[in-house]
Amino acid sequence: MSATVHHPEAAKEFVANSERMQWHDMALWFVRNKRDLQAAKTPEWEYLRELAAEIKAHTQANLDVYLEEFERQAAARGAVVHWAADAAEHNEIVLGILQKNGVQRIVKSKSMLTEECHLNPFLEAHGVEVIDSDLGERIIQMRNEPPSHIVLPAIHLKKEDVGNTFHQHLGIPPHISDPKVLTEVARGHLRRKFLDAQAGITGVNFAIAETGAVVVCTNEGNADLGASLPPIHIACMGIEKLIARQEDLGVFTRLLARSATGQPITTYTSHFQGPKPGGQFHIVLVDNGRTGIRDSDQFREALNCIRCGACMNTCPVYRRSGGHSYAAVVPGPIGSVLSPAADAKQHHSLPFACSLCGSCTDVCPVKIPLHHQLLAWRQEIARLGHLPASKRLSMKAASFLFSHPRLYSIVGSLGRLALRMTPRWLLYNRLNPWGIEREMPPAPRASFRKWYDRERARQNPLPVVSSSSQQNMETQP
Amino acid sequence: MRKGRQIILDRVRSRVLPDRAAPQIDWDRLVRYDDLKAQFCDSAEFVGAKVHHVDSVATIRRTLEESAEYDSGKVIASTVEGLEGNFSASQVQSPQEYQSLDWMLIRGRFGVAENGAIWVPADEVDDRVQVFITQHLVIVLEAADLEPHMHAAYQRLGRFEGYGVFVSGPSKTADIEQSLVLGAHGCRTLDIFLIGRCK
């Protein structure tokens, strides 16, 4: 589980199927387009993003006050608030509630937090049947796969795959691939699970300090069925889901679904304040590394994340490598920021699975400076000594080269010569990662510097830059 | 249980951050609609609901009976005054008993023009599960009760007790190859009856 993952290696299998990779790319780009349409239709979009970031910054600055206020308000409405410093404590708390009430069958709606805590295998090991009730999550649960996207957990699958899965696990005839028919099959299957469940676990999109409310957003209605049919509702949330005031929801409900799927709002935005009549309502507040991120001036804003997935949908690397290649609970740009915070060694390659194009930062509804944070993580990972030798040595060499202009000029001419003269077999092999799956650029006859001297220098001389004032340049391996 | 609480609060308090004021929304910067009703209808249809314009509750049944799905032989529950169903909630012992519901007819408190959402608090129904377990949902709404956007919606809500939900369109999923399918776990269809004129 904690083996070090090298993103390019992990992406190989996905990338090998070019047709499927392109389909995945286009499917996510389609979602990104829908997001653009909604953003463009909202004249105050940029203003909403600013407000969202300010609300989150305000909450982070006063987090202790709001956590206690939330606890007080939620308790006043009859909820039981639990606190878990880490994943293990979270899992124990949930199991404790279930065991105390003799629960053996639960339904669960989407919760990245419970994925992060590996709640399902923990409960199953203690004899509790856990049914993921979001359609996409149910599909991958049957296949024993992790989600590949936080909003679209089964986006890596084609409808034929889903048909096969249902054929194997639900006994439907083979070769059914109509999404309508398959959804109907899942509806019937999950209805029975909902009716049979003794408790429902949900995630949390927002928690309101001033009212003690927990807000859950879904399109399918699974969270509400799971929280309303059984007598016990357990809502699990990271402490960063807290916001101060109910009016702040006005900002976030406008941003979330538009950013996630291009809907103006999710089908259901449910406000849970206290238990249903005769029921129990438990809320588990979880840290599990979040306070560590809060401590960091560099990475704190990553806690603004509302898990819309827009950064994944727009990321050229994510779209072409698939969510599983990140081997992390949250993939894509935000996952590549959050995962190294949990374990820098294991996830050291993720901040490099990025072209620094900045598109994630542009679409993020809560203004997380994602590509800046990814760059900062690269430096941090180098500082921690987690870079593989190939990257470490080539960086050193490049740094030396860039700080010696004459040497740079000589090596440049040699390189151009070499690119023209070297036989293909010497250029295109596993020792040159630049030559894998792509052609090296044609070498120009002369360097830019020579061209400039010849063409322009006389009319418009370059300003003189001393070598000491030259900035270190980031290089791509 | 006390352990985790103290650890988390200690961790948070060990790092004091510069205070950032909670922002106040400048309402002049928010979208305005000339015609709230038209915008609401556009939004509601965009999210897959069907909007009907009626003069009063009395005309709703006639419209419903014209719908292909509706059939008075089916199980119909209603919490709308003047619109009777054939399923009585008074005998119900557990929420599971609502699984037979074909149609649920309820009132919504107000609608939101920008996204077609309708506010349904728990006191509009006998049990909140009715909103989700029914095969088809009907929401009756006064056209005078429309707000432009979610900021106005939450301002109107103020402090409320118990459970409440914004419902925007029928339940849906696109989890299989991004094809939109209406009727995931909740209602398959949503009919909205708008009564009267805008304020």
Tell me about this structure.
In chain A, α16 packs parallel to α18. In chain A, 50% of the residues lie in helices and 10% in strands. Among the domains of chain A are: 247 residues, Rossmann fold (3-Layer(aba) Sandwich), CATH 3.40.50; 81 residues, no CATH class. With 477 residues, chain A is an alpha/beta fold. Chain A is globular. The C terminus of chain A is likely disordered. In chain A, a hairpin with a 4-residue loop joins β5 and β6. In chain A, the strands form 2 sheets. Chain A has a 6-stranded parallel sheet, sandwiched between helices. In chain A, strands 8-5-6-9 form a 4-stranded mixed sheet, with helices on both faces. In chain B, a hairpin with a 5-residue loop joins β4 and β5. Chain B is built from 5 helices and 11 strands. Helix content of chain B is 21%, strand content 22%. Chain B has a single domain, classed as Rossmann fold (3-Layer(aba) Sandwich), CATH 3.40.50. Chain B has a 5-stranded parallel sheet with strand order 1-11-6-3-2. Chain B is of the alpha/beta class and 199 residues long. The model of chain B has no long low-confidence stretch (mean pLDDT 95). The chains are: A alpha/beta (477), B alpha/beta (199). β9 of chain A pairs antiparallel with β8 of chain B.
Second-tier CATH architecture of the domain at 42-288 in chain A: 3-Layer(aba) Sandwich
Q: Predict the CATH topology of chain B.
A: Rossmann fold
Indicate the radius of gyration of chain B in whole angstroms: 20 Å
Spans of at least 5 consecutive residues with low confidence of chain A: 469-477
CATH superfamily of the domain at 42-288 in chain A: NagB/RpiA/CoA transferase-like
Query: In what range is the share of β-strand residues of chain A?
Result: 5-15%
Briefly note the CATH topology name of the domain at 42-288 in chain A. Rossmann fold
CATH architecture of chain B, by name, is: 3-Layer(aba) Sandwich
CATH structural class of the domain at 42-288 in chain A: Alpha Beta
Biggest pleated sheet of chain B: 5 strands, parallel
Strand order of the largest sheet of chain A: 1-10-7-4-2-3
Number of strands of chain B: 11
- Determine the number of helices of chain B (DSSP H or I, runs of at least 4 residues): 5
* Number of self-contained structural domains of chain B: 1
Largest sheet features of chain A:
6 strands, parallel
Q: Report the helical percentage of chain A.
A: 40-55%
The overall pLDDT of chain A, averaged over residues, is: 93
Strand content of chain B: 15-25%
Radius of gyration of chain A: 26 Å
CATH superfamily of chain B: NagB/RpiA/CoA transferase-like
